[in-house]
């Protein structure tokens, strides 16, 4: 995919789908699935979760203009919040003028933890480390797929915890999970080696489970935003002040990072990721130095252009979980066109930075309500019962009056 798409937002649904179909090579069946009501029926939902009574669909949109590591992307986003997809596309449009997003990430190492109690931690640690080759071999016997790919359990480490119940040993398995999120294989390996570790240490294994704090799976990257496109030097300076506010104050940082997660979770939803795992790790990382802070950093280059940097753990997969099961996730993966978990992590990281740029640019200039209120007004007009061809006139009238409310939308609807 190598083309810039103009004014995607002004096109009809059919035109948008035609563009996506042409660029990504969607089949007729895939297009039909996209046009359906969310991709899964009750039968499939009933197999996914317990006590199912139905399905619940969300809007799926496409963020345009993204250039990440010199490659063009159409980025599918599943989100209910207005403005997010527009904000991402706008940020990407500005970033591409300076070459787009440059992202990189670590290998896909998950961390599995085995909690050992009722043991002498010091001597147990020594014994575990002496037997690490045998423990790794046993762990790797639990996944033929990873072993065949030269991936799987790679390292073992031990840490001592002081707790109210006394000392405990935490044995950590570092596992290269390839293109999967890897939760299940990590849990399987942890459970698989726990009896051997009990035998070696004479202790008792309590928990054997993946850590979602995936700090060996970081994504990071940067983008430069031309100062004139940002709105001039004053706005660049205001954005840096806004960043410094978030960097210094957890009350601001939580909202700042929530904006980042608007982008990240929307792409994660579209591609069938475990969004709770991504959120949990991101916020823990934001508090890694004991004080919750910004996941991004903003500064100026020597020419006064704005430079953004993002870094956070990113445990995602292109295989496993619902990724190859949910028809919409499969189609979104095809639209996105990533070939590995590593590439997906880079796209999601870039989206976080893009979203943060647009949010703080708006906050540091005209404020966010201006853009938000139009979409909010549309939702209110629809909620008041306006037909699709009537919504625009009600929205315009409410904006003109500066009175955007459900009551006013109802009044305008009834006055026609
Ligand atoms: P999964 O269980 O479907 O396993 C992935 C499979 O893909 C494995 O069987 C592996 O052998 C195979 N595979 C094929 N090609 C591969 C490749 N190139 N690289 C890696 N594996 C390849 O999925 P998973 O990723 O182990 O687990 C993800 C699911 O587990 C998510 O749905 C998540 O919500 C859930 N989960 C999460 C937690 C947690 O976060 N704490 C705990 C349990 C389960």
From TrEMBL:
<dbReference type="GO" id="GO:0015936">
    <property type="term" value="P:coenzyme A metabolic process"/>
</dbReference>
<dbReference type="Pfam" id="PF00368">
    <property type="entry name" value="HMG-CoA_red"/>
</dbReference>
<keyword id="KW-0560">Oxidoreductase</keyword>
<dbReference type="InterPro" id="IPR023076">
    <property type="entry name" value="HMG_CoA_Rdtase_CS"/>
</dbReference>
<dbReference type="InterPro" id="IPR023074">
    <property type="entry name" value="HMG_CoA_Rdtase_cat_sf"/>
</dbReference>
<comment type="similarity">
    <text>Belongs to the HMG-CoA reductase family.</text>
</comment>
<dbReference type="GO" id="GO:0004420">
    <property type="term" value="F:hydroxymethylglutaryl-CoA reductase (NADPH) activity"/>
</dbReference>
<dbReference type="InterPro" id="IPR002202">
    <property type="entry name" value="HMG_CoA_Rdtase"/>
</dbReference>
<protein>
    <recommendedName>
        <fullName>3-hydroxy-3-methylglutaryl coenzyme A reductase</fullName>
    </recommendedName>
</protein>
<dbReference type="InterPro" id="IPR004553">
    <property type="entry name" value="HMG_CoA_Rdtase_bac-typ"/>
</dbReference>
<dbReference type="InterPro" id="IPR009023">
    <property type="entry name" value="HMG_CoA_Rdtase_NAD(P)-bd_sf"/>
</dbReference>
<dbReference type="InterPro" id="IPR009029">
    <property type="entry name" value="HMG_CoA_Rdtase_sub-bd_dom_sf"/>
</dbReference>
């Amino acid at each position: 995919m190598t083309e810039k798409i103009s004014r995607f937002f002004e096109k009809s649904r059919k035109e948008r789908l035609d563009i996506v179909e042409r660029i990504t090579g969607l089949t007729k069946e895939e297009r039909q699935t996209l046009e359906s009501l969310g991709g899964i029926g009750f039968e499939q939902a009933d197999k996914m979760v317990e006590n199912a009574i139905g399905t619940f669909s969300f809007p799926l949109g496409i963020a345009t203009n993204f250039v990440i590591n010199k490659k063009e992307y159409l980025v599918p986003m599943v989100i209910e919040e207005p403005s997010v997809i527009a904000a991402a596309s706008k940020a990407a449009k500005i970033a591409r003028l300076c070459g787009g997003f440059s992202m990189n990430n670590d290998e896909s190492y998950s961390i599995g933890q085995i909690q050992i109690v009722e043991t002498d931690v010091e001597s147990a640690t020594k014994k575990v480390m002496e037997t690490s080759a045998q423990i790794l071999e046993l762990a790797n016997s639990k996944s033929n797929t990873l072993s065949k790919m030269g991936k799987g359990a790679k390292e073992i480490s031990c840490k001592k915890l002081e707790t109210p119940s006394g000392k405990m040993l935490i044995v950590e398995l570092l596992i290269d999970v390839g293109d999967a999120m890897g939760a299940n294989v990590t849990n399987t390996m942890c459970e698989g080696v726990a009896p051997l570790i009990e035998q070696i240490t004479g202790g008792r294994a309590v928990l054997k489970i993946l850590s979602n704090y995936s700090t060996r799976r970081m994504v990071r990257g940067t983008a430069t935003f031309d100062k004139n496109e940002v709105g001039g030097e004053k706005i660049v300076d205001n954005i840096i002040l806004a960043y410094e506010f978030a960097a210094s104050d957890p009350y601001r940082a939580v909202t700042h990072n929530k904006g980042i997660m608007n982008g990240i979770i929307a792409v994660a939803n579209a591609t069938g990721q475990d969004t709770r795992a991504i959120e949990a790790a991101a916020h823990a990382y934001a508090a890694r130095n004991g004080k919750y802070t910004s996941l991004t950093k903003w500064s100026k280059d020597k020419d006064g252009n704005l430079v953004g940097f993002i870094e956070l753990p990113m445990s995602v997969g292109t295989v496993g979980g619902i990724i190859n099961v949910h028809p919409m996730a499969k189609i979104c993966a095809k639209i996105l066109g990533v070939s590995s978990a590593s590439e997906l992590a880079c796209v999601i990281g870039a989206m976080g930075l893009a979203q943060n740029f647009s949010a703080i640019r708006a906050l540091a200039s005209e404020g966010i309500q201006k853009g938000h209120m139009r979409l909010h007004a549309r939702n209110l007009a629809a909620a008041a019962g306006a037909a699709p061809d009537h919504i625009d006139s009600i929205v315009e009238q409410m904006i003109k009056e500066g009175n955007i409310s459900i009551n006013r939308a109802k009044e305008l609807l009834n006055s026609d």
